[in-house]
Amino acid sequence: MASFPSLLESIDDLSLEQIEVLVSRSQHFKNNPQLSPFNTTPKPIIATSFLENSTRTKHSFAVAIRRLGGLYLDFNAETSSLKKGESLEETFLTLFYQGVNLCVFRSSVSNQLAQFKDAPPIKLVNGGDGVNEHPSQALLDLFTLLELSPDLEGKTISIIGDNIHSRVAHSLMKLLPQYGMKIILSGPKEFLPDASTLPPNVELSTNRDETVKRSDFIYLLRIQKERHADSNNSDDHYLETNGVSLDLLKKLNKLVPVLHPGPANIGVELDQALIKSSLYKGYLQVENSIPMRMAIIEAMLLNNDSNIGRINGEKF
Predict the structure, then answer these.
(1) What beta strand segments (E) does the chain contain?
(2) What's the confidence (pLDDT) of residue 53?
(3) pTM of this structure
């Protein structure tokens, strides 16, 4: 695992071989839930630092850390020296020299960790940055898709909803085509990116029904009102026009797996009947978040990178 990056900011930071190692280790951890690889002294310390609210990502990393046998530190940035004007780099260096081995960081600012690509002050996992990327979510989604269908070559997944503001959609667009998948981004026109920015194997559609008919998998996204300039837009009729209900899937004869990164807004992008049906795989994604994040942490802690925490090229 020596070649794994010390800063996982983007899917682009991983080779296909590294991604396949993570999938394999995730399956190993899922098959062996009592395994604690880090029964060492001292135990590794892994921190989470979330400048945006989170339930699934933060808590699944916390569970993954404990299952690995590490020590978990919840670093509360809201009460830290960041509020006194300390730079992000200085904060990370402080954590490093306090003995923290890795930090999972979430921010509302896109690309905030890119500044550390050449010299990470601490080993870092991007837990979601603005509207940029969410690599660990995309990786656990891949793991889930492979459990549902071991051969993804030629399959079509439709990502339906607020694509332009979705960091996980941006990561999935980079990840899933590497497995031969075709992606349809669907939703109202204002929720879709410019077609000229799309990578190969990704297309746009504003026709929900036609999108669903072409889908082998459906991936639903919530409307991210906190990222909209006009947060008062009504979503009263969104389910009927752009959401997905169980009745719709039955009517279109497309009883396919439905994924959702959460949190799901019942009555908006999906209905109660769908989320309670066997088609809904959101809870499988939650379950799979633990082994995948265990695999990511393990790979990064064991990469033998001795250049972390350097100041002006030197260790303190």
Answers:
(1) 7-8, 45-50, 71-74, 102-107, 123-129, 156-160, 182-186, 202-205, 217-220, 258-259
(2) 81
(3) 0.95
